[in-house]
Structures are given as structure tokens and as C-alpha cells.
Batch of 2 targets.
Target 1
Amino acid sequence: MLEKTMLIKMNQQAYGTTMFQILTEDQIEQIYYAALDVLEVSGARVLHTEALQLLQQGDAIVTDNDRVRIPASLVKQALQSCPSKAALSGRNGKRSIKLQKNEVAFGSGPDATFVYDLKAGERRKCTFADVEAAAKIVDSLPRFDFCMSFGVVSDARSPKTHDRHQFMAMVKNCTKPLMVTSADAEGLKDQWEMACLIRGGEKEFRLNPLFATYIPSDTPLVYPKEMVDRLLFATQKGIPAVYSSCSGMGVTAPATIAGVLVQTLADSLVALVLSHLQKPGVPLILGGIQTVMDQNRKSFHFGSPELHLASAAIAEVYKWLKLLSSAPGGCSDSKIVDEQAASEAVMSVYNGLMAGTNLIHHAGSLEGGLTASLAGLVMCDEIIAMVKQIGKGIEVTDETLALDLLQEIGPGGEFLSHDHTFDHFRDWFQPTVIDRSNWETWTNAGSKTYQDRLVPEVDRLLEAHQPEPLDAKLIQEMKKIISLADKKEV
Amino acid sequence: MSTRTNQTINQTAQFRILSPDQKQRIFEGMIETLRDTGVHLHHEEARALLKEHGALIDDITVRIPQNLVLDALATVPPVTIVQSWDGTRKTRIEKNQVLFGPGPTPPNYTDPDTLERRKYVKNDASVVARVCEALPNIGFVQSLGTISDVTVSLADVYEFAEMIQNTTKPILSWSYTRDTCSDIHQIAVAMAGSEEAFKRCPNYVFYGEPISPLLSDFHAMDKLMYNAKHGIPQVYTPCCIGGATVPATHAGQLVCAFSESMLGVVVAQLLNPGTCVIMGGVQSIMDMQYSVYAYGSPELSLMSAALTEMAQYAGLPMFSTAGCTDTKTLDVQGAIEAATSVHSAMLSGANFIHDVGYFESGMTGSVLQLVMADEQIGMSHVVAKGIDVNEETLALEEICQVGPGGNYSDRDHTRKHAGALWAPTLMDRQGYEDWANQGQTTMRDRVIAKARNIIANFEGPISKVPPEAKKKIEDILKAAEEREAKKAAAEKK
């Protein structure tokens, strides 16, 4: 062993993770200024009386009843008041999602009409039991950070209260933070009340939000009453809101990516201004789905590379504005879990993570979000793990460079039996459904494809995983809220 | 109209793994390893050459002083051009110029008709070359197999003869010995038309392999020297197995891989300053559960991208790896693993990204995996290209004219730009009913159909091969057969 004097390698800078960037600051600035121009020149339509009043008082210019033009100064105020940091906690109270620059969390998707039953090989309507199963799977998967509804509960007593039932199914079976969808502001209110019960009060929820509310919009720069209701309610109660502006290139937005970014940003900034005017300082996460779409079916394509590119770029724009971001990832246009679903999921997870998008939702969603799949969730867990492994980058230190080791072992030697290998091979990605066995081992085990192995893995998780139980009294209290809503609607 | 100034734009996405300081340390690690640990070189002539230039020789161990390494890097070419034999295609080997292609020499092949795994035969080489020729996102050709139905020692030559007549994309050929390396060279010259035409612009790239850790066998070095002397661009890259033939830590693996290639660079530059040598290789880890070299691991993606940055740091072109998988059949695992490595390699800016189409950890070649990856490369390309930001694409006027909630379908701006959106060939975006009515195909089904369609209907450039070149190739093969027969007879004695 060589004697070591104190040595220090000075002025060293390392990349702690991979570094990825689509746009330069100059390009982001151009998009930002163009968005401000859109708000001043053409503005937005706000179909909500109270919101119009707020805007008018806030120095926006309202014409033609509902057309609002917003000066750059007002946008600037809103930007300054919006926190660039928030957190979400599961029902056990642990702050498990940090919402801050370059922190990425992955979650399932919301409100699919159908589920694809891999075993039966067919698509059917989603039920309460499906939402429960999905929440349980999300709870069990190590790379899922938050839970969304998965599918619409079609067996609820009223089609208007499915959101409360979804909330129940999720919170019972998943201890991770939730991102919830609501049928309307009433639904959001009930969900919030249930969350306050779990937390032990409004203030406790405020300090430690259990969920974020996901508010999608598919008509850029138009703000329907019902949507604004939800946004304003969330702001009032300090519920972190995700405003998800969805647009189809060449249909509801320009066919150029820069153009769709401008329109999306303008659209999101209106939501930001509204939230600011209602109550400054409540976290608003901006996101959306910018992609190509099928004009006839009015459906967004969830697997297009344009989506992957635009999502990464808009996250960069939001980061630059010190705002929080969300985007879809791990989703597909395929109708089943196949090679297409895998390819499209990889691309969106990869670019979403590298861009530092805060909340990446819709993992495992199929058919442009219309179909959900438990197998898709499990597949995405493995994809996320692989991409995260790349995102870690490479550590360069004396220990990892291993020059002494190389000299000790020398040309033609082997490293398998050395302690250094034993000390470090656990840092590698460990496959779960992916199979690396050789031909003989694989054929002896029945020549099973990834999909063949996925089905029993889903069953295994459903069988083996027991989520931390939710207090029975709490469930009873929550059920009261739900049945009140059901009675009102039925 | 006002004017903008002081603008920096990203013309493509930017992706980095290593900081300048990290690259410097790995570079220093390579210098130190070649100088202090040294390499085993089983080639007397090469050792003598290195000794003459100041290397320290101790039996087969060669320790290379740093000035020799730095001198070699000073004479490597910044750009090399390979031109197809028919003159229609030029391929530039220069920093950040990306091409994808298959890999060489798996013993098995997935039959595209029966979907069974079987031995690779001569006809497969021409099929693979034609499929590569047909796929828009595949930029170079390797065989995806080792021909089993010809004279064993000439599998490399038959493969090249088959492939070069069926593609105009550059072939990365390999050979067993200097003799067959020369046969391949002669075939390439025949296709180029003349020795002069070939010298002016070579029409293929050679692929050779040192052995990890830090060892070059006689044939690898012998072929490297042949190609260097003849100015044939060549790859000299190891397959490093993390935790088995190199350290389990990625930084250590990068030092090893870099050092192994650099030996080739040094020898080639001493023989012929300015000749093109490409570094890189397959960089992955040993799967500790199955003792398999993992071709689908995320570590492969990560280390390949990092080694690409080291190549760029040193001013060398890069031979990288992607599109390969540990699966045994076309399935979701293959799609996950290929998409992950394809996108990483694309973003890294490597020159020749090979092994697209490998199944079973490199034990089986498959045009099906290749066809699927072609689509993934197309998707990756859209993201890698980044975003054009200018007056026209920002569409500010357009957005204001259409107004809130308006429709862009019938706009000139949309008509003008919608064509630039990516058009999938294997991804199905239909609604469930349409998809169900059309037979509920999976992507696997569509990949198989596309591959079979290309094989059945795409002819490739074979009819353009001049008859005199064909004749010459036959003569070269005949002479090679006679030579190998003599060798075999001599060995028997």
C-alpha cells in the first residue's frame, strides 16, 4: 500500500445528474414575450362573472362581455406571487413529493372510460373495484410517487358523483399523495372535506396538502364557468392546483411547436393571474398536453414525439419563470400493452425526467387516455426505474475511476471476484419483469414474453400488497359525505 | 420593425453526462493507465514500432508515454468521408454526426418467416443489407449474423460480398485475419472501380476489436495495421463487461475502454498519420443473476453516452451501441430496452450507433427488432432536433387572428406546417373500434408485416452492380477459397 499525503483536487465541478436542455434562455424569452403579446393583443374569454370582476379590478381590460386582455404588468405581479415551491404528502403525513425546481415525481393517469383486461384480452368499463386495484398497485410500485384516479367509476350511484367515489377508492388503498379530478366545484369541495377529515382540519390540510387538484382545459384561452369555479375554490382553500392546458396542433393550436408553446403559456398565464387575483401565493402547477390530435374523434395523441418534445420544452419555460410544471408521461396511443405502448412510454418518461418536469402523470395510460391498464402501470414502473438510472449520471472519483485497481489486476485479468465489484454492483439497475436469462433458461421456463410475465406480476402485487389501513371511523365519516352527494344527485 | 440581437439558439437538444472536469479526470485516467499499467500486445512488429517511438516494452507489456498518446491525438482527422460504390451516398464521420445500424456476428438469427431461431446463412446477409437499405433511419450496415453455410474461415468475406452488392449505405465489415481483411479490401476496390477511386474515397469502414482488459491479440492488431496502412477508416473498440472484465464502477470502465481504443489510435497514427480510427465499443455490465452480458441495461445507455463525450473530448469519432435487447423474442422488453438506448445514443451525438437488432444479449440477430427500432429512431429524431423558434413558428399573429377557442384546421399556416409533423409507420393511433375492426394488431404484428414486405418487394441496388465488379468479386472469392484450402491442407500435415 502506498503512503498517502493529504491531497485534494481543487476547483472541481461535476454533473450530479445528466444535463438536458431543448431551448436556450433567448428562445424561452421569445416564447414568453410572444405569450404576453397574445394576452395583450387578443386576450382570452372568461365565462365566469365573478372572475371577470376580479380581472377588471386587477387592471385587466374587459370588452364584449367576456373578452379579457391582460397587461404584462399584471402577469408579472401574478408570477411574483406564485410560490416556486410546494409539497404534497400522503395520508400518513410524510412530505413525499417536493415540488421545486428539477424535482420529478411520477404518477398514474386519471379518468379513463375503459380498462383493458390483459387476461381476458378485452376492454370494458371501469368500476370502483378497478380504481381500488389501481390505487393498490400504485401504492406498491416503488417508482410511483402519486396516484390519480385511473378510471371513471362507472358503477357509482350517480354519474355526477363518481369523483367522490374515486377519492375514496384511492385514499383507502394508497398512502401516496393524490392528484384528483373533480366533476365540478361541488365534487372538489367534497373531496377537500374528506381530505380535511383525514388531516384533522382545514389548517392542517393547508399546511400539508394531501392532494393536488387536476384541472384540464381543452379549449385554449377560453375559461368555462365550471372550470373557473374549481380553480377559484382550490385557490381559496389553498389546494395546490394543476392547470393542464391541452391543445391539438393544427386544430386548436398552431401546427408549429413554438406556436403551441406560445398559446399554451398564454393560456396558463391567465389561470395564474386568476389564481393570483383570488388569493395571492397559492401554489399553481402549470402543465398540459401539447400534441397532434385526431380532429374527428376530438382525441389527443398521447404517444407522438411532438408531445414529448413540447412537454420537455414547456417545462423549461416554466422553470425559467420559476413556476412548477406537469406533463403526461408513460402514456400511449396503443390500445393494449404492446411494443408501441412501451416505445411511446419510454420516450415520454425519458424526456419528462430529463427536462425536470415536476409532476409526470398518465403513466400506463393507453388509447390516448381513454383506456387504463394495471399492466401498463407495472410496465411503467420498470421503465421509470431504467430512465432514472440513466438520469443519475456517472460519478467520477478516485474510488470509481479505480486506477489503482486496474493496475493491481492488470491487462487480461478479471474483476468478478474482486471486492470492488462486490461493493459496487448493487448500484446497478435491478430488473423486475425484464428477463436477462440465456436461451436455455428462458425456453425451459416456457418461452414467456414480457407481456406473459406481466400478467402474473400484476396478480402477485394485488395479492401480496396490503396498503396501510385507513382508520375505519374516518371511512365512515367520508362515506357520509359521499352518500349526501349521491342523494342530492339521484 | 424592430430587430433582435445577441441571440443564442439551440439548433438541437443538448444532452450531457460529464462535466468538463469529469472528462478531464477520465482522460487523465486513460493517460495514466497506458503509461503505468500498460497493455498486453501480442504483436511483435507493433511492439517494435512502439518501442522505436519511446514506449517501454517488457515482454508483451507495452507502457506508452503520454507524449505518444497526445501526438497521436494531434494527427487524427477531424472529418472523414465514406462514399458509396455507386457514388450516390456520402457519409461524413465527424463530431456529432449520428448514424444508426445493426451489429455484426451473432451466431443465431430470427427467421423472419418462421420466427424461429436458426443458424445464419449466406442469403441472410443480403436480406439484412436490403432491409437496411430500405429503412430510412438506418444509416450503415452490419450483418446481424455469422454465415454458417460457407467455408468457415471465409464467412467474413462472403458476408461482405453479399452485403456490398445489396446496399449503398456504408458497411462496417469485420474479418478473421489479415488475409480476409485484404480480400474484403479487394472486393471494395472492385466495387469502387479502381484502386485510385477507392483511395480518393473509401466505400466501407472496418471493425476490429481489442480485448478487455487492456489486451490486443495478434489478429486484432495485425488487421488494424493493415487498414491503417491502406487508409481504410476503422473502428477499434472493445466490449467491456462491467464487473467482469473491467471495474464495476462506470468511471473505471470508461478509463479501460478509452485506453484500449487509444492503443489502436497510437499505432495507426504512427503508421499513417491522419488515418481515421473510431473509438467506443459495447459498454455494459455483467448481469449478476444470470452471468449474461446485459445488452438492454440502462447502464449501457449511460456509459455509451458518456464514452461518446470522451471521444468528442479527444477529437475521435465514436462507435456506440443501442437498439439491442436481452429479450429472446420480439416483445415489450425489446421495445423498452431499444427505445431507451436509442434515445440516449441519439442525444449523445455518437457517430456509428451499432447493434440495432440484437436479441438475446448479442446471441441472435433479428431484422424484426431492427424494423421496430427504425420507428423508435424516427421518434427520437423529432425530439433530438429540438424546436425552431422564429417569427413564423411562434405564430403570434396567427394566434391573435384565430382568437380564443378558435379553429386552426383551415388556416394557411397550418397547411404550411402540418406536413412537418412526424408521420408514424408502425404506431397505431386509431380509435379502439377502428383498430378492433382491423384485426386488433399489436405493434409486433405490424413490425413483422413491414419486415416481410420489405424482404419480398424491395430490390435494393443489386441490379446496378457493374458486371465487371461482379466478375472480380467471384475471382476474389475463388482465390480466397484456394488459399484457405491450401492453408487447411498445410495444417493437416
Target 2
Amino acid sequence: MLLGGLITFGMRFSLIYLFGRFDIPETIRKALHYVPPAVLSAIIFPELFLREGALNLTLDNHRLLAGILAVLVAWFSKNILITIIAGMIALFLLQFFL
Amino acid sequence: MSEQSKQFWAGVRAEIPLLIGGFPFGMIYGALAMNAGLPASAAQLMSSIVFAGSAQFITTQLVRESAPGLVIVLTIAVVNLRHMLYSASLAPYLASLSTRWKALLSYLLTDEAYAPTVIHYEKEGITPYGHWFLLGAGLVLWMDWQISTALGIWLGTAIPESWSLDFALPLTFIAMVVPVLKDRPAIAAALSAGVVALVAYSLPFQLGLIVAAFVGIVIGTVLEGRKSPRGTLPPRGTL
């Protein structure tokens, strides 16, 4: 377990440390700007589109519907709290009424 | 209020929805660890020492199957590969800190602390006290994880699944990522990473996430490189 902790820490520390000691090439610096959209989408998509490991594009997939609504709310409001509240309420309503 | 505490509390505030979304996972982890026959102290210690949700879930599974220690450690390493990506992504903003600060912040660098922090940094750029933001977000998430683990150990999964509190996590990520999608390369990076994540989902150890992230990053970077000759600014770093 200690080893597991050390490895986890090591990976989190590795590049923060290395990049602090050496100059970061411009191409990598540029590429790093795409880490947030890429990683966050890679986390979000399966949460919305997959139900029990399988693609579900039907209206039964309440999380996908609520998620799409949240994307729209986020786009227009640019407000994190409003987006979360809208998405949660949408999911509750869908679960109760569909 | 000093600039340090301003940043610190901004980090805490940005983390709040993720605290709510993460709480059920901590409880599920605690309950699963008990189920797998881990001693309560070991289950709790793992949350303090490893402090990485998905790695802990898989470790619990492997302990239940009595997998050898080396397999467990290697699995943790692969599952946590994405943290190297986070480490690289935040490195430019933390470059001027002392090693001690870097170590502390690295220990606290989870998915849920990374997301609000990198969004905050992309907006504000490199600021002298920005690291306090990550400290606030990471510290309050750490406490959330310890408390939820302890409750899971003692009470089992007491929060009904129908409450869907865990949905707060993807919702928060959505709320954070949408404003970042300002130009074509960013949108392409997000869409391609998302689609690849769906296709590669069945890969073990969250490798699908890594593959998807890399595809998105490469596509975004290549598109940016392509469009820039027509832009007004010379492409940085292509010379």
C-alpha cells in the first residue's frame, strides 16, 4: 500500500518536477493547452453515453439527456453553479416522470 | 484578505460541487473495501496515502481476488498514468515553486482537484499566488475523501443510488469544459477525445482515457498548427 501511494505520488510529481528543471519545448507547451478539453471530455463522454458499459442513445438514457441540457446551459450561462443545478434538476425530473 | 487566502478560498469554493459528487464514491469505496475483507484501518489508510479513487477501487477488487502485491502495484501505476498528464499540464504554472511546495501539491493532485485548477490557471495565467488555489481545492477534497471513506466503512453505502449525487461530477466537468471550447482546435480536441473514449472504453485499467486524451491533444495541436499561418499572430514554437 505504501508502494502504491509512492507510485501514485511519483506520477503526479514527475512532470511538475522535471518541467520545473528544464525548459519546456514550445510544441509541448502548445499541446498542453489541449489537455483540459481532451481529458475532461474523455471523462464526460462515457458517463453520459454509456449505460452499464454499452452505448445507449435512447430516451431511457436520462444522464445523456440531462447532460446535453447541461452543455446548453453551460454554453449560454457560462456559470458553473447554474449548469450543475440545471443538470441535477433535469436528471431528477427525468427519473421521476419518464 | 491577503492574496494567498483569496486564492485558497477560491480553490475551496470551486471544489464544492466536486465534493458533493465525490462523496458517494468515497462511501462506496469504504463499503467495498469492507466487503473485500480489508481491515478498516487499511481501507482508511489507503484513502490517506494513495488518495486516488479509481486506483483504490481496483486495488480493492484485486485484494478480493488475492492478487499478488506486484500486480497490485503495477495496476495502480497504469491506472494513474493520467496523473502524469495532469502533472505535465500544471507544470508551467508551478515551475517557480520550491520542491517542497511541488511535492505537497503533487500529493493532492487528483482528477477533481486538477479540473478546477487548470481551468482557473488557463483563465488567469501564471500568478504569484496561484498555487494556493490548488492547495485549497486539493486539501478540501482530501478531507472530503477521508470523511466519506470513514462513513462508508462504518455505514456502508448509506446514500440511496436514486439520488444520483455522483452525477454532480460529470456535470461539474461539463460546466468547466464548455467555456474552454473557444475555437475549432479546442472543440475538435474535445470531440475526438470524447468519441475515442467511448470506442476505447473496454480497454482495461482506464487506458481508454489515456488513449482518448492523447488523440484529442494531438488533433487539437495539429489543427492549431495548420490554421496559424493564415492567422495574424506567427505560430509560437514552429520555427
